[in-house]
Design brief:
The chain is α+β, with helices and mostly antiparallel strands. It folds into two domains: 2-219, no CATH class; 311-466, Heat Shock Protein 90, CATH 3.30.565. 65% of the residues lie in helices and 8% in strands. The protein has 15 helices and five strands. A hairpin with a 4-residue loop joins strand 2 and strand 3 (384-391). It is rod-shaped. The two termini are 78 Å apart.
């Protein structure tokens, strides 16, 4: 029973209604002034017809009671529990000492407002339950005193006898008057309590809606920030892959041209031509990337930009460009069925190409490898594409890196639901980069997490000694 009452009053809701602001406090002062004027007018009209002659204390006592009542209106939302308790007690006391004043409609409406305000604005709901309980107990004691122990029934009998009232209905007049009084008070207090609780529940729902709206705004801001960060990372990956690859090619070819310029001019010219071609390709891809950024297209999601993006068909040209006099690069594409590589979605092809590009750039920058091998395996039955880049070199002394290349590979693979494994080759010298991607670009259950952990835990080539 107690738990049900506390649940109805909202004791365990965990929400406290905010205290009224300056505007609401000023409004309460105006309501108190209005109540004082209306009650005073009603009091004097009642006095004018001679209905207050038997009230105790005279006019001063009556207005003292009225002023104490309207004073509670002025603070009804600042101290709602105290107002509800004192308002109910005030009503019971006034009914005993000044029943005519208490029974006026403006006074009754003011009592109703106080009980309602306590229910609607109480911040300590448990204290409110106790306050309302005290008021109801006082009301029960009042009825018990008036009708069981006091002179209330005698006064009713006297009034009925003076008017010679006879029973004409199913209920005796004395019982009817008592029931009318009890039911009237039950309805009065019940309606004030119920309406106040409805108002409090409405404020609670409004606060919950506002909290949800605030949460949505915060989440939207977070998603916007995450989108900005993701876009920055995408731009950084694209710039890193495009610039690093072509610059490393130009560096290697320039070194080769410098070494053979005196004794083999033809080889030097070939190296310079490779530098020229790499610079043109780099500028062209940079221009395409900047154009894509201006138009707002996502090359990783759409595989489209101002110019056709690299695909698996461009791997031979990439391998040829990566081949140097000191490092031979070979490539093979293994297909489960004919032309399976051509049917790989463009975003997956672009990701595979960029990862191969970055892996070969790492070989040139950080390895003493004489040979490197690129293998692409497309398995339509399994719904995956696997890319593997293996070399036979050791870490080049004096080189260092930031790890951004490996991070970019991992982010590209994760973007499509794939994974990356990086580390030393098993059973031989060299380095191995293995990437697998789902052909449909969705994350298969259970596989990505392990592969991602392998990537995150793997050391970079330049951090491992020979």
């Amino acid at each position: 029973m107690i738990e049900a009452v506390e649940r109805w009053f909202g004791v365990d809701e965990g929400w406290r209604r905010p205290t009224p602001g300056p505007q609401e406090r000023r409004a309460d002062l105006w309501w108190a002034l209005l109540a004082l004027v209306v009650i005073a007018i009603g009091e004097e009209l009642t006095r004018s017809v001679g209905m207050l002659e038997e009230e105790r204390g005279g006019a001063w006592a009556q207005y003292a009671g009225i002023l104490s009542l309207v004073a509670m209106v002025a603070v009804r939302r600042r101290f709602p529990v105290a107002v509800a308790l004192l308002g109910g007690t005030h009503m019971i006391v006034m009914s005993l000492v000044m029943p005519t004043t208490m029974s006026q409609l403006p006074v009754q409406m003011t009592y109703f407002l106080l009980i309602f305000s306590g229910m609607a604005w109480a911040r300590n709901r448990r204290a409110l339950v106790l306050a309302i309980g005290v008021v109801l107990v006082q009301l029960v004691l009042l009825f018990a005193w008036s009708y069981a122990l006091g002179s209330g029934l005698d006064e009713i009998r006297s009034n009925l006898g003076e008017r010679d009232v006879e029973q004409v209905g199913p209920i005796p007049p004395l019982v009817a008057i008592v029931l009318f009084s009890v039911l009237g008070n039950v309805i009065f207090f019940g309606f004030a309590i119920g309406l106040g609780q409805v108002a409090w529940r409405g404020a609670l729902r409004q606060a919950q809606v506002q909290d949800q709206a605030r949460t949505i705004r915060e989440q939207t801001a977070q998603l916007t920030d995450q989108a900005v960060v993701a876009e920055r990372l995408r731009i950084a990956r694209e710039l890193h892959d495009v610039v690093a690859h072509h610059v490393s090619v130009m560096g290697v070819q320039a070194a080769a041209a410098r070494r053979v310029m005196e004794r083999d001019p033809a080889a030097a010219r070939t190296a310079l031509g490779a530098i020229e071609q790499a610079s043109r390709d780099g500028v062209g891809q940079m221009r395409d990337l900047l154009g894509t950024l201006r138009t707002g297209e996502d090359t990783e999601s759409t595989g489209a930009g101002r110019a056709p993006q690299p695909t698996l068909a461009a791997l031979p040209a990439l391998v040829e460009q990566a081949t140097t006099p000191t490092c031979a690069v070979t490539a093979e594409v293994v297909e489960s069925v004919p032309d399976a590589a051509g049917r790989v979605p463009p975003p997956v092809q672009l990701t595979a190409y960029r990862i191969v590009q970055e892996a070969l750039a790492n070989v040139r920058r950080h390895s003493t490898a004489r040979h490197a091998r690129v293998a692409v395996r497309v398995d339509e039955a399994a719904g995956t594409i696997e890319v593997e880049v293996v070399d036979d070199g050791s870490p080049r002394p004096g080189t260092s890196g930031t790890g951004l290349g490996l991070r970019g590979m991992r982010e590209r693979a994760q973007h499509l639901g794939g994974g990356v494994e990086v580390g030393r080759r098993q059973g031989g010298p060299g380095w191995r980069v293995r990437v697998w991607l789902p052909l449909d670009g969705h994350r298969p259950a259970g596989g990505t997490h392990a592969a991602t952990e392998a990537t995150a835990a793997a050391p970079t080539r330049e951090s491992v000694g020979p």
